[in-house]
Amino acid sequence: MAGKIKRINLNDYQPLRDIIFNTLREAIIIGELKPGERLMEVHLAEKMGVSRTPVREAIRKLELEGFVTMIPRKGAHVAELTVKNIMDVLELRASLDGLAASLAAKRITDNELEHLKSVSSCLNEYIEKGNLQGSIKKDIEFHDIIYKSSRNDKLIQIIDNLREQVLRFRVLYLKDYRSAKNLIKEHLEIFEYIKSRDSANAQKAAEQHIKNQEQAIITAIDKEQKFKTP
Q1: Which residues contact 110 (CB under 8 A, 6 or more apart)?
Q2: What confidence tens digit (pLDDT) does each residue in 90-104 have?
Q3: N or C: which terminus of the chain has fewer CB atoms within 10 Å of its end residue's CB?
Q4: Are 79 and 45 in contact (CB under 8 A)?
Q5: Could you list the residue range(s) of the whole structural domain that residue 35 is in?
Q6: With pLDDT > 90 as the criterion, what percentage of the chain qualifies?
Q7: Which of 52, 2, 59, 35 minimizes the C-alpha distance to 172?
Q8: How many CB atoms lie within 10 A of CB 100?
Q9: Domain ends where: 57, 78, 99?
Q10: How far is Cα 62 from Cα 69, in angstroms, rounded to an integer?
């Protein structure tokens, strides 16, 4: 359990609970801690070289954010990725991303367009090289530019509230090379519509992009579950 969890840097200026929280959350997001895996305070504390108290506090915070579930008499486990949860989150995000792209097509600046183009090119390079961490980072940055360009603070706030849940889905999506190649094509389409100030088609392209992700992720989970079945 938690074989890749390492000792943490105690020289960090963050509170210890936050360092542990971020370490465990990252491990869950990138799949080092698997859905359904038990989180044992003693083992985690030993792995990270800390006491059990801040580990317990971090696990409670992870539970509040939906990354961990508490099972009676069995303790804390990494939250499962269910089809229902994926659909709930991504259906909402499709609408929000569509609105953001529509507004961005009307309000984006020339400098932001250049930044969007640059980030898109960098993302394509990372995908071609199989750099998962780099691809995730640039995919997030691509969408963040669009959100910011919407100039709608309330919209950005709502999207931010979904950010952590979406991260787990993003890793699943980008691990599949075919999905990642589709992402390149879809990002280019969104960029071109925003560049041409075509708000209606920018919205449609952004919504379809998330819907495609939803289907790809559900398919990936179905395959994984079938593989686990004896």
Answers
A1: none
A2: 999 999 999 999 999
A3: C
A4: no
A5: 16-78
A6: 62
A7: 35
A8: 26
A9: 78
A10: 9
Q: How far apart are CA 48 and CA 200, in angstroms?
A: 50
Tokens representing 67 are 């990354």
166 falls within a domain? yes
Residues 124 and 138 grouped into a single domain: yes
| Helical spans, DSSP H, in the chain | 16-29, 41-48, 52-64, 83-107, 110-129, 132-149, 153-175, 177-195, 199-228
Residue 72 maps to a domain: yes
What predicted TM-score, i.e. pTM, was given to this entire model?
Answer: 0.79
Domain co-membership, 176 together with 199: yes
Q: For residue 67, give the amino acid letter.
A: F
3-state secondary structure 56-97: HHHHHHHHHCCCEEEECCCEEEECCCCHHHHHHHHHHHHHHH
Q: What does the pLDDT look like over 67-88, one tens digit per residue?
A: 999 999 899 999 988 888 889 9
Tokens matching residue 130: 């199989």
User: Exposed, middle or buried: residue 160 (CB in 10 Å: 0-12, 13-18, 19+)?
Assistant: exposed
